[in-house]
Amino acid sequence: MTFLGILFIGLLGTAIFDLWVRLIAKLQSAPMPAWALPGRWFGHLARGKFRHDRIADATPIPNETAIGWIGHYAIGILFAAIVVIWGGPGWLSAPTFAKPFVVGVVTVLAGWLIMSPGMGNGIAGSRTPNPPRLRALQVLAHVVFGLGMWCAALIFSAFV
């Protein structure tokens, strides 16, 4: 039951994150995230190359968009596992807000300190056109991810 809970919470939390990002993009008439570039980064990472000056200039990887989406959801499931393990055996039947919220907020650091520099965008997007705006949007999206994991845990606990 724990594995199913982790899977459900990770998938639904990530889907809620994606819906939020889609809403913000639409409200700001901005493009949707391009999951091909993270997929390209994951593909090169699997081949031993962590850092790129600019991931857009790196050699394309077959199926990089699919790899990006799969990696995105796999990471969401991994973060849900952290919440469930931290919460302990009883947490899935009586989920509280604090753990998924904290994990959701802290997960932004993975993007800022690992993925962004690896893709050539600098620490916390420092090499992007508007780092403060990007950081604010990323923090907000990760807060929504934490809320999404908590909502998913509440739904799951209602059926356990």
Question: Topology, please?
Answer:
Blueprint: H1 2-27, H2 36-46, H3 64-87, H4 98-106, H5 108-118, H6 131-159
Helix pairs in contact: 1-3, 1-6, 2-3, 3-4, 4-6
Radius of gyration: 16 Å
Gap from first CA to last CA: 8 Å
Structural class: mainly alpha
Separate helix tally: 6
Please state roughly what percent of the residues sit in beta strands, choosing from under 5%, 5-15%, 15-25%, 25-35%, 35-45% or over 45%. Answer: under 5%
Which sequence of SSEs, written as H and E, runs from N to C? HHHHHH
* Mean pLDDT over the residues: 95
Describe the global form: globular
Give start-end ranges of low-pLDDT stretches: none
Q: Could you estimate the helical fraction of the residues in percent?
A: 55-70%
Per DSSP E runs of 2 or more residues, the count of β-strands stands at 0
**Main beta sheet:** none
Number of domains: 1
